[in-house]
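Researcher: Sit down with what I've pasted below and flag anything odd:
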Amino acid sequence: MNLILFDDEKVGHLFPLTFTRPASELRVGILTVTEKWNRILGCDISFLTRDYLADKYPITYSNDNFYVNGRLLPNEKSISAIRELEEGQSLSINDEIVAFRSSKSLNSINQFAESNSEEIEGILLARPHDLFALNGQEIESDFDRITDGRESQSLSESNTVIGNGRIFLEQGAVVEGAILNATNGSIYIGENAEIMEGSLVRGALALCNHSTLKLGAKIYGATTVGPHSKVGGEVNNSVILGYSNKGHDGFLGNSVIGEWCNIGADSNNSNLKNNYAEVKLWDYELGRFAKTGVQFCGLIMGDHSKCGINTMFNTGTVIGVSSNLFGSGFPRNFVPSFAWGGNAGFSTYQIKKAMDTASLVMSRRGIELGDVDREIMNYIFKTTGSYRFWEENKEYSI
């Protein structure tokens, strides 16, 4: 099977998280959507995504291609239905094509001629807050896939375990002097990950490879800390995609944090409005704030964004890519990409300076900000200029 995960026209509803990646590269549960399909089907995977991302996420065709929407979370029914597809057949959810089989090398899903599409049951990631809303069920599903038939590394007796829930430690994981409660959700601790002394964990939790819960961290499920991240303070039902730090005290709740982000010490977000009303989030595709259908919703932060110490985020705040926030008071609840400032006002985080910072941050993890990454950042800088309302000149030389 040659599996191609495609981005459809609705991927913009997942901005700013999908400015820098295909939808299938989002992490929900323990694994990214791409990793889920790879683990289940054991096949080659490539991407049919937007042009500016294609060099980083290329596509590979064969004479028999299975195209699957990158927003689709795999379940038993969808997996079975995809395996049984014949040439020219497709699958839909609520009349929206989510999978089809074709011998043709398509560069757009619009080239696929729909005929007698079969309706199936399934879940598509639709908005950024879906990542934390669906995180509990996805941690449990991924836990089953990853640990089936395997034995956990032993847990040190210095820890206190509450209940008989599932706890799994990969090789190299270190957990000492922590309290772990997996009664209402599984706890997965990845390779060379560490939970430091005094940490309080209530599952579900996915602490991915090479990540750390710092001294005295307080974690409520369902929370995912992606690979190579450091987390301290209090976290509730949040997803950190990876390579990001919230290393100190402060509250993060019902939030999604991208890669290469940093949350300053004693920064907090609100996840519940004072009047307990439904939260609205900025929707790039609609060009306005839209209802989420949820009462609890905190911070959505795009890749490479950062905030200084004591930053305060209002309920339902959306931060774009590579923004740097600081100062007293609450920033606006929609901050465009490449913004520099806060409640007192903004200036533009110039692209060269932003890339210099990104390069330094990534080099600390032994990763280079390559030419392809720079081209992606340039593209995002140029195409998001219209949101930076403080600018007089919207023309950029890139």
Notes: The chain is about 15% helix and 30% strand. The longest strand covers residues 96-102. Residues 28 and 131 are 5 Å apart (CA to CA). The domain at 2-126 is CATH 3.90.550 (Spore Coat Polysaccharide Biosynthesis Protein SpsA; Chain A).
